[in-house]
Specification:
Helices cover 16% and strands 29% of the residues. It is α+β, with helices and mostly antiparallel strands. A hairpin with a 7-residue loop joins strand 2 and strand 3.
């Protein structure tokens, strides 16, 4: 069961893609159940309602779904929480020791975009980088959780994510700060779909990235230093996680920051994939600077 949001940006409609034996799959509208895939829907047991409605044959076929834009599979989150250096090899290529506690930062929710939307390079960016990541979607409120079991129960599902990052803005140098390097427009593509946690093993998923068809990252979520329940539990000690929030669990080695690959340029095509959660594709373009009066 793959939960999606299809249509023009800002007016996406909720849908579910059900795989078929021939590999094509069929799209069904979720409008009989909800206006959108958001925190309220998830908190009210929306994923279970979808499953039951499918079993009962109560959802209408969504005709022409293949021709619609694919939006992020969850409506604009209240919070997007990033986790840094959560793979030992990536920490090493960044010149850091593996962390002993999660490195946590926040991204503005207005950075979230669809998985195939063109990606803007900032007007003066010279060090724009890719980061394939497993994304956790929160399904119920999480605050001061007492156990990993409670944390796991707060995970609605998982998504593919690309945490596009401007390294010169992020890292030490000319006023480098993580918030500056992680907050750029269109820098958090999510999707193409949300898979319920009960349908997939989030702790053992191959993930990778490609730039212009050439492989860059190749790893597995089994290599995470801190797994999904640990991250949810840890974050809940410092912030209230709400349904629909997204946690980006960190990226493996193979980014441009390593010095082994060039940074992204206009016209480059980035693809990222988490097995079972779908593949993204973004074509980079240079965003124009604001016109002066």
């Amino acid at each position: 069961m793959k939960i999606m949001r299809l249509g023009h940006s800002g007016s996406e409609q909720p849908a579910v893609l059900v795989p078929s034996v021939d590999g094509v799959g069929q799209y069904f509208s979720l409008l009989p159940l909800t206006d959108d895939v958001d925190g309220g829907f998830l908190a009210a047991g929306g994923l279970d309602k979808v499953r039951k409605a499918l079993e009962a044959g109560e959802l209408p076929v969504l005709e022409g779904a293949d021709a619609l834009r694919v939006g992020p599979p969850v409506a604009r989150p209240g919070s997007v929480v990033g986790i840094g250096m959560n793979y030992a090899a990536h920490a090493a290529e960044s010149g850091a020791e593996p962390p002993t506690i999660p490195v946590v930062f926040l991204k503005p929710s207005n950075t979230v975009t669809g998985p195939f939307d063109p990606a803007p390079l900032p007007p003066r960016s010279a060090k724009y980088d890719w980061e394939v990541e497993l994304g956790i979607v929160i399904g119920r409120e999480a605050g001061y959780l007492g156990s990993l079991e409670e944390a796991a129960a707060c995970i609605a599902g998982y998504v593919t994510a690309n945490d596009l990052s401007e390294r010169e803005y992020q890292l030490p140098g000319a006023a480098g700060q993580w918030t500056k390097g992680k907050s750029l427009p269109g820098s958090t593509p999510l999707g193409p779909w949300l898979v319920p946690a009960e349908d997939i093993d989030g702790g053992n998923l191959p993930l990778g990235s490609w730039v212009n068809g050439a492989p860059r990252q190749d790893s597995s979520t089994s290599e995470l230093i801190f797994d999904a329940p640990t991250l949810v539990h840890h974050c809940s000690q410092y912030m209230r996680l709400e349904p629909g929030d997204v946690i980006l669990t960190g990226t493996p080695e193979g980014v441009a920051l390593s010095g082994r690959f060039p940074y992204l340029q206009p016209g480059d095509v980035v693809e990222v994939e988490v097995e079972g959660l779908g593949r993204q594709r973004q074509e980079l373009f240079r965003a124009p600077a604001a016109a002066t009066a």
